[in-house]
Amino acid sequence: MFDAxxxxxxxxxxxxxxxxxxxxxxxxxxxxxxxxSLSSGRHLVVEAGTGVGKSFAYLIPAIAYALQQKKKVIISxxxxxxxxxxxxxxxxxxxxxxxxxxxxxLVKGRGNYISLRRLKRAVEHSFDLFEKDESVEALGRIxxxxxxxxxxxxxxxxxxxxxxxxxxxxxxxxxxLGKKCPTYRQCFFFSARRRMExxxxxxxxxxxxxxxxxxxxxxxxxxxxxxxxxxxEAHTLEQVAAEHMGFELSNSQIRFLLDSLLNAEGTKGxxxxxxxxxxxxxVQTARKELQRFFKEIEEYLKEFPEARRVRQGGLFSxxxxxxxxxxxxxxxxxxxxxxxxxxxxxxxxYRKRCEAIAFSLECFLKQDLGKTVYWVSRSKHRFKKITLxxxxxxxxxxxxxELFQKVRSVIMTSATLSTEGNFTYFKDRHGIRTSxxxxxxxxxxxxxxxxLRIPVGMPDPADYExxxxxxxxxxxxxxxxxxxxxxxxxxxxxxxxxxxxxxxPFLEEKGLRSFQQGESLSRHEMLEAFxxxxxxxxxxxxxxxxxxxxxxxxxSQVIITKLPFSVPDHPMIEARIEELEARGExxxxxxxxxxAILKLKQGFGRLIRTQTDRGSVVILDDRILRKPYGxxxxxxxxxxxxxxx
Length: 645
Prior knowledge:
Elements: H1 4-8, H2 13-17, H3 25-40, E1 44-48, H4 54-69, E2 73-77, H5 80-97, E3 104-106, H6 116-124, H7 126-129, H8 133-146, H9 163-169, H10 188-198, E4 201-205, H11 206-217, E5 228-231, H12 237-245, E6 247-250, H13 251-261, H14 277-300, E7 307-309, H15 319-335, H16 341-366, E8 372-378, E9 386-392, H17 396-404, E10 409-414, H18 424-430, E11 436-440, H19 446-449, E12 450-454, H20 464-481, E13 486-489, H21 493-510, E14 513-516, H22 523-533, E15 536-540, E16 557-560, H23 571-582, H24 587-604, E17 615-619, H25 623-626, H26 630-636, E18 641-644
Parallel strand pairs: 1-10, 1-11, 2-4, 2-5, 3-4, 5-10, 12-17, 12-18, 13-15, 13-16, 14-15, 16-17
Antiparallel strand pairs: 6-9, 7-8, 8-9
Helix pairs in contact: 3-4, 4-5, 6-8, 11-12, 13-14, 14-15, 15-16, 17-18, 20-21, 23-24
């Protein structure tokens, strides 16, 4: 079987196939480490700086291992852009140069596929199901698309899916006849499933992986068994794992289910298709209780603009739980009256959905899950959307038991995993007891490519108005010297909006196109427009600190307005800090500071994406110079030219 040393060598197949191929010793070193980890069955944590060529460094050993051992290997990413790079560029290239054929597939969750049987049923009952003409029209367009699509996947649909309609036609495990289905041979989901079973390499995203891991805790699974998993963009693992190991339940989710059963007027919905007065009555009762329950939650949130922690059970009425269990039981009685197998499946599916809502509500109200933080939040964009949350305070124990003890080899890589030259913080947060470690630098020459600028004289950020004016003045100064190609990164939506509002007249006068996160364009649309313009300014918050790739002159300066310390009053952060204090640890040194260092590294990393990129990173927070912890930030950044003042 082939090995990475030969494939990646200066005279190897890749060098012969690619005229622009760059041999990188750090890439080869990483590939050797991945190869050793897979063959020995050990876990590996590897930080590899931008430009190392991480994807080839793990893909080649992974393919070789999968073919030699006849085992499946999972590659998991956080962003769609990296998935697209792997599937559309890197894997096709390796298929041309590797000496043995292999099969790699992009795996999507079941909710991405249309069910032809459910589509037919929705069309037949459209008059009962949908109250708006636009829903019936959307169903008609999906019906037409279903005869043309090759994949049956949501991503292949050339319009945004109508949520109400897609819910009635999506492939659903609780509403599936399997091999007994009349459309089984044409089924898009089972076709994708067969390709997945036959593949050597499965490309997934972190959300799908941890959704499957959560299922496995209950004895179920979506993904086939695998022998190894490689996480790229591994710096996001804890965040994604916490989402899937807990629960979220919003008033809009509950209302959506009730409307699917029977709308408020009692004229449309699933229950219209057969006589079941008992269930109809309970659905209308649930609607009233839903309004009453979330009025209690709104009152609890009254003085809190976004989120508030719920520290004890018994604060809110449990009636809504009881009502949803009544709906479940009433549907159970109706099950005996089902006229055919399809109606039986629909009823069973609705029963499971009602029980899932009742279970999440009960968990939230009784707070009987161990080591879990609970809170309620209000949507920033839609005031009426309120969500109940429950999440493990520390995912490490769960990941150790469910992932690292059960999977033979887990490999985690990113450009930002270490703090101050070690992986202690990352391994503690993720429950990694034993692993190999590799800390690889970048092939880029940061001393020549980057100037780090740090002004002095920053006011106290607690004095909001003075700090806002300081940031406005400094950013305007920098924009006078640079004609666009600038990211301005914030840790606060409020500060971003206020500074952008102050700068707008200046930007218009200078003729600079500008983008503010949260305005009319989506994140993806905004980034593409920024790249295309090549001479503009982008104002962004959290999601623009990471996973954003703008090579070339389109980005020549990154301005970081403040060191990215987490807001300590967010319920999750607050609970983690309390847990560390209870263990006798200093939360600032063991959690807050390492988190901020990793995020600063991510923001810094937006600037240099190729060997020819040049530019400056400006940090408007002089605490990095005058506070004892500041040196720890500086030590974590690549060596580059430093200008102070």
